[in-house]
Amino acid sequence: MVSSNTRVIVQGITGKEGSFHAQRMKSYGTKVVAGVTPGRGGTSVSGIPVYDTVQDAFKEHEAEASVIFVPAKFAADAVYEAVDAGLKLVVVITEHIPVLDTARFVKYAKERGVMLIGPNCPGLIAPDRALVGILPPRAFTRGKIGVVSRSGTLTYEVAEMVRNLGQSTVVGIGGDPIIGTDMPTIVKKFEEDPETEKIVVIGEIGGDMEERVAKMKENGEVKKSMVAYIAGMTAPREKRMGHAGAVVYMGIGTFNSKMEAFKRAGIPVARSPYEIPKLLEDRP
Amino acid sequence: MKLYEYEGKQLFRDVGIPVPRGVVTQGPVQWQGKAVVKSQLLEGARGKRGLVKVTDDVNGAIKELKAQGVETFLVEEFVPHRAEVYISAMLDRRSGEPIIVASPEGGIDVEESKNVKLFSIPLERGVRSFDVLNVEKYLGVKGLEKVVKGLYRLITEYEAELAEINPLAVTESGVVALDSKVILEDNALYRHEELVSKFSRQYVADTYVELEGDVGIIGNGAGLTMATMDMVKLEGGEPADFYDVGGGASRERVKECVVKVGGNQKVKKIVINIFGGITRCDEVAAGIVEAMKIVKKPMFVRLVGTNEEEGHKILRENGIKAYADALSAVRDAIRS
After folding, report:
1. Whole-angstrom Cα distance, residue B149 to residue B134?
2. Distance (Å) from the C-alpha of residue A102 to the closest C-alpha of chain B?
3. Going edge to edge, which strands form the sheet with B322-323?
4. What is the four-CA torsion angle of B322, B247, A29, A156, rounded to 10 degrees?
5. One-letter-per-residue 3-state SS of A3-72
6. What is the pTM of this model?
7. How far apart, in whole angstroms, are the C-alpha atoms of residue A133 and residue A119?
8. Is the Cβ pair B222, A243 closer than 8 Å?
């Protein structure tokens, strides 16, 4: 999904989050080639040149990916701009984007073959190669575990626990009800990725992505070992648990339905995040 | 933002969904004949709790319910009907398109019902006559155009995340929404300020969710906070709340959260679980220390990540132990 060759544009680079994380991505070794903030063209952030539009940045630099730190009210515009400019990967860190906006730009990106990750996500990291997002580097070492998660902090927690095994790629897909790239898509990528040996799925209540991942395993579409953790055992129904997507409507995506789906597929589920390393070591 | 039933019905009226004749009141009203007196609360299951009364003595029912602590009532005409159905609209997570959810079994717990059908109506084209026909055929009810179009508008124009009618009554002269459940999307409220002020609501989105137990829970990140609740339960405790301080919380925000959780009478102890990324541990620690001046309950703090050393130092100097892993903090909290 990302490599040491991936060239990245940071949209919203002059903001508080954008400037801090652009600098951090760059020092991690990510090829951050340009930043974009309307009205701030011609300036620079940590030595990264800033342009008014993605188009302008493209005239000077080639790039494949964009990471968006633009505030929620303007984030949809930033996504359309990135897609129209021809970027192939767009990572939306911004949270609190109205879900109708998301529904529309997710569809727009999909129809044009763009891989969109997020919104409301920490981004992704291929340890020692590239960091595109806000994940704290200390938790990651290069290795063979692929991690996909709906939750930011839980991802850091679990990544740090499996540090000795190391990770191939870690993807935080975001906690909103509608997101660009879902869990089954990432799991499929891990299945095809020669570097990934085992897969960790960190889910939570709401929606049916985890159930669909379990089904893929059950159907034999995924051969690699998989372990899972689901947050929200004690969450009451119809109450939103922080994430916009962590809510059960119509009984879809309860803790129990996810647990049962994993059980049917023979995927062990950790009772707490702390059990994940042991479950991974137990798997062939 | 969850709306009261009468607020939801006001929106129903705005988008053309028929509702019973009624009046919102906090005290005695002028009313002739049979009526339904409905307590206006944001929690569900009012019927099961005896908070909805069908009566000829409206003011007597109001008096009785007031004694139970209810403040606001919706008094509505009693609508005789021959059938009840369920119908709602929301966005489908997988397709990203609006769906109409229908069941011929009205008044039911839709989660339990087997007879539920979803009708996808893509944003690009909106509601068409054949959509209405499909829903009408499935429910065996005619005259649903206003209802289907109205619910659809609530999702796509008012940006509700859920618009539900349960039950929709089928009468001799047409359909009537006997109840309303409308939840407006918090993230989109800035585009609908006129609605919030129309309802005279002062609404601030917050992640706090109160639960039944006695162990206060604060975390950063929704997943980590949920995982902390679950660990408390698995270790034999009962979580009293869910409270995500959010990313990059300042000391003021942390203090505010601890004071709120600590202010719950049921809470005997507080577990705080922080993995700092954007969030700085020293800010968190300073916020906790500030809150300790107000909240005199035992706190079990797990604090790792950005500026961990400084955070631990601040806690230590104020006599609080900082745990490196959440499970130990949770275990000590349960055993204390």
Report:
1. 13
2. 8
3. B215-219, B269-276, B299-305, B322-323
4. 50
5. CCCCEEEEECCCCHHHHHHHHHHHHHCCEEEEEECCCCCCCEECCEEEECCHHHHHHHCCCCEEEECCCH
6. 0.94
7. 11
8. yes
Task: List CB contacts (< 8 A) between A136 and chain B.
Answer: 276-277, 305-306
Q: What pLDDT digit, counting tens, does each position of A103-126 carry?
A: 999 999 999 999 999 999 999 999
d(CA A42, CA A76): 24
Domains and CATH numbers, chain B: 21-77 (3.30.1490.20), 83-198 (3.30.470.20), 207-335 (3.40.50.261)
pLDDT reported for residue A131? 97
Where does residue A148 rank: exposed (0-12), middle (13-18), buried (19+ CB within 10 A)? buried
Q: Determine the residue of chain A that is closest to B183 in CA distance.
A: A238
ipTM score assigned to the predicted complex: 0.91
Distance of CA A276 to the CA centre of its chain: 20
Angle at Cα A270 formed by Cα A203 and Cα A125, nearest 5°? 50
What is the per-residue pLDDT across B257-284, written as a single tens digit (0 to 9) for each?
999 999 999 999 999 999 988 789 999 9
How many interchain CB pairs under 8 A, A with B?
157
Cβ A180 vs Cβ A152: under 8 Å: no
Cα A231 to its chain centre, rounded Å, is 17
What chain B residue is nearest to A275 in terms of C-alpha separation?
Answer: B327
Average pLDDT over residues A7-35: 97
Considering only CB atoms, A272 lies closest to which of B90, B231, B242, namely B231
Taking the C-alpha atoms of residue A135 and residue A28, their distance in angstroms, rounded to an integer, is: 11
Which sequence positions of B are flagged as catalytic? Answer: 86, 164
CA–CA separation, B61 vs A275, rounded Å? 55
Catalytic residues of A: 243
The answer, for A152 touching chain B at a CB cutoff of 8 Å, is yes
Q: What is the pLDDT of residue B54?
A: 95
Residues A182-224: pLDDT tens digits?
999 999 999 999 999 999 999 999 999 999 999 999 999 999 9
* Percent of chain A topping pLDDT 90: 89
Look at residue A116 and give its three-state secondary structure: strand
**Closest to B208 in 3D by CA, of B225, B193, B188:** B225
Residue of B217, B230, B273 for testing the chain A interface, max A β-carbons within 10 Å? B230
The answer to whether A94 and A69 are in contact (CB under 8 A) is yes
**How far separated are the first and last CA of chain A, in Å rounded?**
26
Q: Look at residue B120 and give its three-state secondary structure.
A: strand
Q: In sequence order, what are the residues at sequence separation of 6 or more whose Cβ sits closer than 8 angstroms to the Cβ of residue A281?
A: none
Across the interface, of A207, A232, A240, the residue whose CB is closest to B93 is A207
The CA distances from residue B110 to A1, A105, A246, A257, B49, in Å, are: 40, 31, 19, 16, 19
Task: Give the Cα separation of A171 and A89 in Å (integer).
Answer: 13
Helix (H) / strand (E) element for A104: namely: helix A99-111
Report the alpha-carbon distance of residue A148 to residue A222 in Å, rounded: 14
Which pLDDT tens digit goes with each residue over A127-144?
999 999 999 898 899 999
Low-confidence residues of chain B: pLDDT under 50: none
Report residue A192 as tokens: 């095809």
Question: Do residue A242 and residue B244 have CB atoms under 8 angstroms apart?
Answer: yes
What residue in A sits closest to B243 (Cα-Cα)? A242
